[in-house]
Amino acid sequence: MIVDEAQRVAGIGITLKIITDHFKDVQLLVTGSSSFELHNRLEESLTGRKFEYYLYPVSTGELLRTGGLLMVRQTLEQRLVYGSYPEIVSCPGSAKELLMGMAGSYLYKDILSMEGIRKPALLEKLLVALALQIGSEVSYHEIGQTIGSDSKTVEKYIDLLEKCFIVFRLPALCRNMRTELKKSRKVFFYDNGIRNAVLQNFAPVNLRNDMGALWENFVIAERMKKNHYEGRYPKYYFWRTTSQQEVDFVEEEDGLFHAFEMKWNPKRGTTSLPASFTNNYPVGSIHIVTPESYLDVLS
Questions:
Q1: Is 285 in a helix, a strand, or coil?
Q2: CA-CA distance, 258 to 234, in Å (whole number)?
Q3: What count of Cα atoms within 13 Å lies in the side-chain half-sphere of residue 14?
Q4: Closest C-alpha among 216, 299, 203, 222 to residue 265
Q5: I need a surface site. Which of 183, 187, 274, 281 has the fewest CB within 10 A?
Q6: What letter does residue 222 receive in the DSSP assignment?
Q7: Cα dist. 62→37, 65, 223 in Å?
Q8: What is the separation of C-alpha 117 from the centre of its chain, rounded to a whole number of angstroms?
Q9: Neighbour tally for 24: CB within 10 Å
């Protein structure tokens, strides 16, 4: 039995529990576009009776399997600007119009339908502020001052945006050194196209001044998709010290730390990790991720 948009059915959780408990030969597949609301309605009733599957925007690995290596390489710049939602990948000629429609409804549907959320204008300002700061450390207090709110409201809204799979937070890695940033965090978007739609900026790659941030957002989101689909669940961080030494992305798994440095233009900046990181953490692997090498870590 397939139940689509299950979050719209009153009492869906207890109904599915009864079917599961009393009709052993029936297998349920329950889907919903409102992931946060669906999770809330099913969590208590089906605890221990369900498997959860997350459908992210189309991953690089999926595109490789369906379109081949040449298509993936030819569409990289398109995906950096317009993202990888299924309809965007299928209809690249209408990508801008489709994304603007999504940004005008999908982004806010889950959150604004919740009780107590009555400030859509504030939410829009917050998303713009976050979109402008991908790749940079985020201060709830500073964002609150920027959008005319307080830090607790900013944190609450970001938490809701994360539960709705629009953004995700990356905490700072801090274990050993006194100079490491301890309570900092970055916020990234699950999809580059949604981020650019929030800013209404679909300029091509060669005309953008934010390619470093877009490349970092793209690689981290794609790497998380790959790990999830392969059944790997490392902890994710970034690393930075007060003297501005940094590693863009760190995966901690089975006691080892795998470091990733994203370089859209590999000719700029260093292509090695700070010695203070490699000397203080057991490093399992180091990856300098460029447009020429990115498939090594995403396929």
A1: strand
A2: 10
A3: 2
A4: 216
A5: 183
A6: H
A7: 27, 5, 13
A8: 22
A9: 8
- 185: which strand partners? 171
Q: Which residue has the tokens 């964002």?
A: 143
* Other beta carbons less than 10 A from residue 254's beta carbon: 6
Q: What pLDDT, in 10s, does the model give residues 140-198?
A: 999 999 999 999 989 988 988 888 889 999 999 987 666 666 678 999 999 999 999 99
Q: Is residue 257 within 8 Å of residue 282, measured between CB atoms?
A: yes
**Residue pair 139/149 in contact by the 8 Å Cβ criterion:** no
Give the pLDDT confidence of 67-123 residue by residue, as tens digits. 999 999 999 999 999 999 999 999 999 999 999 988 876 666 666 665 556 667 888
Integer-rounded Cα radius of gyration of the chain: 20
Q: How many CA atoms does the CB half-sphere of 250 hold within 13 Å? A: 22
Distance between CA atoms of 219 and 201, rounded to whole angstroms?
20
Alpha helices per DSSP H over the chain: 12-22, 35-43, 60-67, 69-74, 76-82, 86-90, 95-112, 120-132, 140-147, 151-163, 192-199, 211-229, 275-278, 295-298
pTM of the model: 0.90
Please tell me the distance from the alpha carbon of residue 140 to that of residue 114, in angstroms, as a whole number: 22
Determine the angle formed by the axes of helices 95-112 and 151-163, rounding to 10 degrees. Answer: 120
Average pLDDT, the chain: 88
Residues 6 or more apart from 269 whose CB is under 8 A from it?
263
**Contacts (Cβ under 8 Å, ≥6 apart) of 279:** none
CA-to-CA separations, 21 to 17, 25, 26, 43, in angstroms, rounded: 6, 10, 10, 16
Angle at 36 (CA atoms; ends 30, 37), nearest 5 degrees: 70
